[in-house]
Amino acid sequence: MDDMTRGAASVPARLDQRPTRPARGAAWAVAGLAALSAGAALALRRRARPQRRLEGPPPVTLRVAKDLNRSAALLGLAALADSAVEHYRGSFHNPAMVTPLAVSTAVIGVSLFGTLDDRPRAHAVRDAAYGGAILTGAVGTGFHLFNVTKRPGGLSWLNLFYGAPIGAPSAVALAGLLGFFAERVRHTRPGEAPAKAPKVLGVPAADALAALVSLGILGTVAETALLHFRGAFHDPAMYLPMVVPPVGAALLAGTVLSGNGRPAMASTRAARWGLRATAALGFVGVGFHAFGVHRNMGGWRNWSQNILNGPPLPAPPSYTALALAGLATLSLEEDRRHAR
Amino acid sequence: MSGDRMFDDPMPDDPMEVPRATNGRAPDVFREGGWVPMREHSENEAVDFAIVGTGAGGGTLACKLAEAGFSVVAFDAGPYWRPLEDFASDETEQRKLFWTEDRLCDGDDPLKLGDNNSGRSVGGSTVHYAMVSLRFRPEWFQSRSKLGYGADWPIDWREMWRYYQEVERTLQISGPLSYPWGPKRPRYPRRPHELNAAALVLAKGAEALGIDWAPTPIATLSSPHGKAPPCVYRGFCTSGCSTNAKQSVLNTWLPRALAAGAEIRDLAMVGRIETDRAGLVTGVHYHRDGQWRFQRARNVVVAGYAIETPRLLLNSATDRFPDGLANSSGLVGSNLMVQLNQAVWGSMAEEVRSYKAPPSLALTEHWNYADDGKDFFGGYCYMSQGPLPIVWARTLAGSRGLWGEALMRQMERYNHQVGLKMVGECLPQERNRVTLADETDRYGLPVARVTYSYCDNDKRMMRHALGFMGQALEAAGATDLWEERDDTCHLNGTARMGSDPATSVVDADCRSWDIPNLWICDGSVFPTVGGVNPSLTIQAIACRTADRIQALAGRGAL
Ligand SMILES: Cc1cc2nc3c(=O)[nH]c(=O)nc-3n(C[C@H](O)[C@H](O)[C@H](O)COP(=O)(O)OP(=O)(O)OC[C@H]3O[C@@H](n4cnc5c(N)ncnc54)[C@H](O)[C@@H]3O)c2cc1C
Ligand code: SF4
């Protein structure tokens, strides 16, 4: 009966890694970092308060920017929880494995700060954290690719299933990118009114965001597909993320990027519903994954092992985060249309 | 103990002492203390099929025949376990799964019988098998005409391919997405497991020597299925799996058999098959609950594995069949084939902990499919290994001859051990056989005498494999290599199928040539063993037999 009580598999296998002392240390470090960044957010906010408030209702750009901050925070949280669990399971055997934890914690902190900040200005601290996340995501992808290809069999299905997940670091990068966009959308030069159609690197922000969010969703779908395939789609619900988010992403891209410049109420409404469904799926997915944990030996009674072995609880909310960013993009798009 | 009960237990529930499948219920293997309803059959009314043995052959056939609407009673000498409550993580305790009754072994190379080759449980040897689930190489079904050795099977490989698929689906085999050897096969129902360190050593060695390797197709779940959780990788598989992740006959075919109306009688040792004056079988005498009983049957299927099957046929001799049942060819008991199970062991500088996870997660079938560069007929595969501590200590003491201080020092290196072990094709030889000894067992039945000698071909294959596995292990970085030369596994032959009554015991449908209502459906019917573990093929044969029986019944030819 105690087939479940002792950990599992082999030495290089992730399953057998029991948390070591440095692992626990790292966990504490992350908790500390989280507290610190929450504190920093509050402190920064206090400094932000005395600033002159804008007259009248807040401009759409500010609202959208805050929405994007919120998405970045949620995506950062999903990435933090996921990398914490996975790298803990890997005993943080490479010190670099703490990086994503620190960086996503920082992303959460500055994003919360962003949601509380009413000034129409980009902030250097936020930009630094978001930039760091983009960089970390890129480097992490490299690390994970290297880990996969150096295993016997090279770039094989087996190594894609069980090597370092190639798609995971890009969640950190995506959080950083959403934050970076939040800053650009928010920013107005002193004395200028908020732009009606803000641009990012010369491209209309709505277009760029729609592309980013749709690609982000599709990338996440690809990773989900790989892992659900590894699980042999043993539950029909595992097909839901193959269907709902791609539809949401397609509707978003179709609405914003169609480029005919005419307000298309129907397609906006459809996109909104598609994205809401995608956001809801992120919540429902956690429930499904909790059920999946229960289907492992010992179920939730054996939570300390099955949370590691079972489907990752923090993964589905990535869809919620991206869908929320998509909904913000639609607001921006509507504003642009009104301006025309 | 928990769970619903359909009746109160009158006495302590020791499955090795008191039969569990009685009073219209059988153990629910998926719940501690649980039961499922079971249809019961009267002893006085002839059932369509009495099946002796509920392992890979008998259990599978019981399910398929019951689902086809036949009335079925299946007997097993062993207990009816509930893995969740009866299996301890203790090698010694789990010896209760093995067939350790008396048998005499002789010949030039007497076999070591017991844990590594036979089981005594409802579910048969699959309760403690290692779950490796491989298909035959197609040419092996005609090894005499295509490869020049052994004997041809009377079945076409393409037909077998279909039945393999049926079994792979039932057992939810997890396997690689593309298999490097042989004709294309459908995708395995489940994805491969993560490799443990021992399997990675095999992979490294194979890559260094430039041959293909693959994650082993294996009958343990890589994701949840029905009431069974996925594998937890603790490696107790050959002592019985206490999670039900292992897909054995006990938790796959038999629950289906019960649901379809089959009756299973545990702790029921069949001692004799009864025949009438017309030369047909009429039922079986079996020992249960302290007394001999008789079950009438229109057909009897013997599925006791390659030693007990011929023993029962020989023990059922009558005046009319003085040499035993189904034995006009004189071949019942002969052509016993084990498989070569030699190994090369070594030590890695880093920790391997090879006992974690199912023992054989990676394999190469290279020498099953390559015909050049061999000085022997037949083929072999080899796999990574993960012996539990007592098995390992016994191997070091028995095969390596270590004792005392030296044995202790080696045991301290347990976490660093790695090994590659072959499953090699022995050739059928008439002199390798099961006969009856003068000694009797606790039921008063003559015990089996098992005579075994390797032939030169077997020895050449052994040398080839040991040499090659040694090179592979060395290439993967192992040091302190040594060869384990005396192990064998699996038991096949002794009632071979064929297309000529003079040279075989049963036909392609597993029906005996001599007695039309006597069937044999287990590892005994193999004319050749091939270089892969046999259970998948045994189950495929059983599925085919069930289809054939249905077809024969359909045209009144039973
Ligand atoms: C340790 C071990 C590991 C193995 N690993 C693998 C593997 O990885 N892959 C693989 O393919 N194969 C493996 N095998 C082999 C496989 O388990 C057997 O080949 C297969 O189970 C044989 O099927 P069978 O139906 O012929 O006999 P069994 O499955 O052995 O079933 C025979 C049953 O008949 C019962 N019985 C016998 N005589 C009587 C009687 N007179 N009355 C009542 N009941 C009787 C026995 O109790 C037994 O339960 C392994 C075997 C062992 C022991
Ligand atoms: S390793 Fe897997 S198959 Fe083997 S005993 Fe444990 S759970 Fe069962």
3D structure, described in words:
The complex is a heterodimer of chains A (340) and B (558). By secondary structure, chain A is mainly alpha-helical. Chain A has two domains: 155 residues, no CATH class; 122 residues, no CATH class. Chain A has eleven helices and two strands; from the N terminus they run H-H-H-H-H-H-E-E-H-H-H-H-H. Chain A starts with 20 loop residues before the first helix and ends with a helix. The N terminus of chain A is likely disordered. Chain B has twelve helices and 20 strands. In chain B, strands 6, 11, 12, 13, 14, 15, 18 and 19 form an eight-stranded antiparallel beta sheet that branches. In chain B, strands 3, 4, 7, 8, 9, 10 and 20 form a seven-stranded mixed beta sheet that branches. Chain B has a three-stranded mixed beta sheet with strand order 5-17-16, with helices on one face. In chain B, strand 3, helix 1 and strand 4 form a beta-alpha-beta unit. Chains A and B meet through helix 5 of A and helix 5 of B. The complex binds flavin-adenine dinucleotide and iron/sulfur cluster (SF4).
The share of residues in helices of chain B is 10-25%
What low-confidence regions of chain A span 5 or more consecutive residues with pLDDT below 50?
1-23, 48-52
Which shape of chain A, going by the Cα principal axes? globular
In terms of DSSP E residues, the strand content of chain B is: 15-25%
Tell me the distance between the termini of chain A: 69 Å
> What's the CATH superfamily of chain B, by name?
FAD/NAD(P)-binding domain
**Which percent band covers the strand fraction of chain A?**
under 5%
Q: Estimate the mean pLDDT confidence of chain B.
A: 96
Figure out the total of helices of chain A.
11
Rg of chain A, rounded, reads 21 Å
Which quaternary structure do these chains form? Answer: heterodimer
* CATH-assigned fold name of chain B: FAD/NAD(P)-binding domain
Give the CATH class of chain B: Alpha Beta
Helix content of chain A: 55-70%
DSSP, total strands of chain A: 2
